[in-house]
Amino acid sequence: MLRQNQRFLTQIYVLFDAVGMIVAFLAAYWIKFESGWLPGTEALSFSSYLLWGLVYAILAVLVGYSAGLYKPRRRTKLSTDVWKLGQVHLLSFVGLLSFLYFAKEIHVSREFLGIFLGLNLTVLSVYRIAVKMTLFRLRRAGYNKKYLLILGAGSVGRNFYKSLLQYPELGYEVFGFLDDNLTEHPPTGLPMPPIHGGLDRLDELLRKHTIDEVIIALPLAAHEKFAEIIETCDNAGAKTLIIPDYFDLLPARPYFDNFAGIPLINVRDIPLDELGNRLLKRAFDIVFSIAAIIVTSPIMLIAAIGIKLTSPGPVIFKQERMGLDRRTFVMYKFRTMHVSDQNTADTQWTVENDPRRTKFGAFLRRTSIDELPQFFNVLKGDMSVVGPRPERPYFVEQFKDEIPKYMVKHHVRPGITGWAQTNGLRGDTSIQDRINHDLYYLENWSFMFDLKIIILTILRGFVNRNAY
Fold first, then answer.
1. Fewest 10 Å CB contacts: which of 231, 255, 329, 407?
2. Which tens digit of pLDDT belongs to each residue from 210-253?
């Protein structure tokens, strides 16, 4: 049997979350109504506030369950835990506001709600961080360990073991290997756990030793043995995990789909393939781009006047780019260079101290003001506020053969800013690194991730030293 009862641990997490929310509620109530630090009178009784606090706590637990907040967290990163926690409680807070609206409860203090949300996120984040860091230290010291048995001592199994050594804080220890074809390890340059024999010893080892999880790292040719292996592990109460022999072809989070009653591995699952996500992103794009155009209209007017006064030619530069589903569109930018033939503009990179730039144009590029007309592209539906940057078709034809998975980014609308740009990958930087960031964005998209990228774009500024 497994040494830890996951249901019990989940209940403990829920209990401590509830305690943390109550502590945050009491602290917020004291700060607002008892401390004398803030002006105002108590329009509702303490019991009314307590009732809505309980509604919030129940809502947060339900949302947390549906969002996977209480799933086993041993393998997740600390930052992922905190980010998931923030998403759950922001969504729960919006739900609470909805309940207050439908209940026509207008006397709840807005200051109290703001203080409660801030304290709630702080208390629960600190508590989660403290638990995670404590467990990390205990596991590094040899406590709270889980023991693994790896089936397959070939390259897949050995690479998994070497990767596992880089994360001692996870608290996993490899008991050894089982393999029908290898009696000793090929040279690897580091000590490896022993091979205890062939696969026929699996049941014996599971009964004699404490093994929590069995990792199947066998080649595809051995797939006929999987059913018997899984049944043996189930009978012994050990979890079974399979590393596909083709794992290097899969994304970080492969998605299991179902087609005609047959389970399939979706090699490129993209959250924005779902209609609801696309509609949410498109609605946000429309609202945000209209607001951005209104707010930046004085800046765009000054830029247009500056371009007209400093160089002859049109204010807006139009250029063909490749976007969603590999379809081309005309992208708008403020003109930053002297007028030249279109072929030159479409087939040449801009470089540092590019002689084609105007002095005013160099300023516009450095401050990203030249990108502002692209909000009209967003309104048209050619682009999104957040997404991979679009490229000229001439360079797409080059990169699609030179850069692995380059064309995958065209599964979504290109963006004005993106995950690559917020990480400094703009202008004369690695195309491969940009694509890696774009793929991460595609596979991990969420509305909150888009907001994070927008906030990072604002906080890190629009000035970029690689924008020539």
1. 231
2. 898 999 999 888 889 999 999 999 888 888 998 877 666 666 66
